[in-house]
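Deliverable D4.2, example record:
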Amino acid sequence: MGLSRYEISQILRTFEESHFADLHIKSGDTVLDLKKTSTHNATPPSGESERSTQSLELLQSTTPHPLEPQEQPTRYITVAAPALGVFRRSSPFDELPLVEAGDEVSVNDTLAFLDLLGTLTPVTPGQPGRVAEICAEADQLVEYQQELFKIQVLELP
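Output generated by the structure prediction step:
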């Protein structure tokens, strides 16, 4: 998303009144390069504002070339315990853990179970991603809303 005409006019006005000689702004696919150049060859008397001998030159208001891609920050979500219970990393029918750090998971995948008096409550991520960290110890009692997993959110291309 670029800059509006109003925002550009405000930037121009502020820049013209500032002591800066150059200004470079990128906003979305809009690039604004501003440079003050001297309009007189004579040196201004000391104490006189440089602003009076400078004009504003707009070099570029938009860029015809694509901007270099910026790396998106990595987002994480926390999967918290939906209830009180013993944290079980494997299903009752298998001894292997359901997920390991680094595994990709979808919205409804079961990451673990919480066992309370024989009742198993599944723990699901609620969002697709990659298991970044397993925060709870297997076979230990966890509290309601205790952090169990950190999931790296996978952005779709």
